[in-house]
Amino acid sequence: MKKNAQFLIDNIKGMDIPGSTTLNIRYKNMVNFAKVYGITDPKYIGPEEEGVVACHAFANFYTIKAIYKLLLGFKLNQDGRERGLALDLGKLLHAGNRYNWEGCVDVKPGDKLTVTGKCIDARLVEKNMMFFTDFLVNVKNQNNEPVCNITISAGFRKGGY
């Protein structure tokens, strides 16, 4: 376990996550998401033709899709063999998100979001052999404007890395 953790620490910190993923934003998904949170402001649940935008909670919608789509394709070469970041997805834990909307524009129906990311930290907690990674995920719209920057933390239980 320690060998795998050290390999990941040495090789993924600072590494761009290979590829990107694209998400098409639909009015119905934005509005339904806001309603789940009890949001009643017409800015977020009003008619599409009146310029409705996504509430900030909607970032959860594309964050979860991004982490799985991007991380599933994250491959490394260890000891001459290709391996994924996660060796056992059943041991992957979503440990949290931090959202930053500074300098970002609102998400609107019809937007086509592109998600890219980079591993910014990797560490092992030896006491319980939990391995944690932090990814900076950048989400931009079809005009290359940022809509949200997210730090996603993922934990891997022993045997998952």
Sum up the structure in keywords.
alpha+beta, Thiol Ester Dehydrase, Chain A, 4 helices, 7 strands
Topology:
Layout: H1 2-12, E1 21-24, H2 27-36, H3 42-45, H4 59-72, E2 75-78, E3 81-84, E4 92-100, E5 112-125, E6 130-140, E7 146-156
Antiparallel strand pairs: 1-5, 2-3, 4-7, 5-6, 6-7
Describe this structure in words.
The chain has a single domain, classed as Hotdog Thioesterase (Thiol Ester Dehydrase, Chain A). It has helices at residues 2-12, 27-36, 42-45, 59-72, and strands at 21-24, 75-78, 81-84, 92-100, 112-125, 130-140, 146-156. It is built from 4 helices and 7 strands. The longest helix is centred in the middle third of the chain and has 14 residues, at 59-72. By secondary structure, the protein is α+β, with helices and mostly antiparallel strands. Strand 5 and strand 6 (130-140) form a beta hairpin. Helix content is 24%, strand content 35%. It starts with a helix and ends in a 5-residue tail after the last strand.
What portion of residues is helical? 10-25%
- The top-level CATH class is Alpha Beta
Distance between the termini: 7 Å
Quick one: how many beta strands?
7
| β-strand amount | 35-45%
| Strand order of the biggest β-sheet | 1-5-6-7-4
- Low-pLDDT stretches: none
By CATH, the superfamily comes out as Hotdog Thioesterase
User: Helix tally?
Assistant: 4
Rg to the nearest angstrom?
18 Å
Order of helices and strands: HEHHHEEEEEE
Proper CATH architecture:
Roll
CATH fold annotation: Thiol Ester Dehydrase, Chain A
Report on the biggest sheet.
Answer: 5 strands, antiparallel
Structural class: alpha+beta
Number of structurally distinct domains: 1
Shape, principal axes of CA atoms: elongated
